[in-house]
Amino acid sequence: MSRSAFVLLIFLATRAGAETLSACPLSVLSPGLHDRQLSAGNALRSYHVYVPKAPMPKTGFPLVISFHPAASSAAGHAATTRLRDKADEASFVLVEPEGFSGNFSKRSWNAGTCCGAAADAQVDDVAFVRALVAKVKSEEVCVDETRIFGVGHSNGGMLAHRLGCEMADVFAAIASVSGAMADVQDKERRFLCSPSRPVSVLEIHGNADKCHPIEGGKGVGLDAVNSKRSVRETMEEWRVRDQCSKKTRVVRKTGVATCKTFDKCASGADVQLCELDKHGHGWPGSDKYELETLCGGTQAKDVKANDLIWAFFAQHPKR
């Protein structure tokens, strides 16, 4: 190669790198918590961005979007999960959006047949989340686009499953605690689950949960009108979508949790169910379980959902 050609090659590579960096907002938001807003679907929606106290990786921060349960809030969910502590420990950006409340005080997500005002009004929460991801990564913080993840609790977990269906181009993996697919009975509210690529899915679920029974059914609580999809049925459907074999194996056994995965999924995907014995509807590892009287079961203290979820996400970037 001639010297002039070599110099040109270096110039083009440097320019490409500079253009990539210039398109990434390296330091728009400083470490700490930021309250933000976004116009989506003719409504002003609120969300919170937590930037970890850590140097930004060369490829940008992993991004985790955390969805609160129905009748809760981002702040309440943050206090229960303490995911911001995990963000500092593992160096990822945490985004905590607020659900839709309409004219009511109780916030919720439209996950299909569930839940509350968001489902009743058929709010397009998928469009909201898509706009949210676009704004965060283009205007607020540098994001590693191969490591964008969604996690939710209860109704928020149901939304995470829906996002796996409809935003597989964005999310590398999703995780749900005490949730499942939410499209069982009401045909008008069903959505097509046809992901554009295999998505890794983790479900963490207590077998004593009365609000969202692991075997499905109406359960009790905010959305007792609609029948809940069986968790095992939900995971079997993900197995088929991700082209996994029917064979399962135990990948983790810790405390009351037994985690099983399907073998040989397409494109390195993973479909995993962590079943927690005698656990109810709480966030495993949290010292808060306010729904014990309503939802039953006990609170798993020897299993930390945050650790299970981040270990799963860290192993499953978008391929």
Report low-confidence residues grouped into runs of 5 or more. 3-22
Mean pLDDT: 88
Shape: globular
- Kindly report the spatial arrangement of strands forming the biggest sheet: 1-2-4-3-5-6-7-10-9-8
Backbone CA Rg: 20 Å
Distance between the termini: 34 Å
Report on the structure:
The protein is an alpha/beta fold and about 325 residues long. It has a single domain, classed as 3-Layer(aba) Sandwich (Rossmann fold), CATH 3.40.50. It is about 30% helix and about 25% strand. The chain contains nine helices and ten strands. The chain has helices spanning about 5-20, 75-80, 85-90, 115-120, 125-140, 155-165, 230-240, 290-295, 305-315, and strands spanning about 30-40, 45-50, 60-65, 95, 145-155, 175, 200-205, 250-255, 255-260, 270-275. A ten-stranded mixed beta sheet has the order 1-2-4-3-5-6-7-10-9-8, sandwiched between helices. It is globular. The model is unreliable at about 5-20 (pLDDT under 50).
Topology:
Blueprint: H1 3-22, E1 32-40, E2 43-51, E3 61-67, H2 74-81, H3 83-90, E4 93-97, H4 116-120, H5 125-140, E5 143-153, H6 155-166, E6 173-177, E7 200-206, H7 231-241, E8 248-254, E9 257-262, E10 271-276, H8 292-295, H9 305-314
Parallel strand pairs: 3-4, 3-5, 5-6, 6-7, 7-10
Antiparallel strand pairs: 1-2, 2-4, 8-9, 9-10
Which key phrases capture this entry?
319 residues; alpha/beta; Rossmann fold; 10-stranded mixed sheet; globular
At a glance:
It contains 9 helices and 10 strands. It is α/β, with parallel strands linked by helices and 319 residues long.
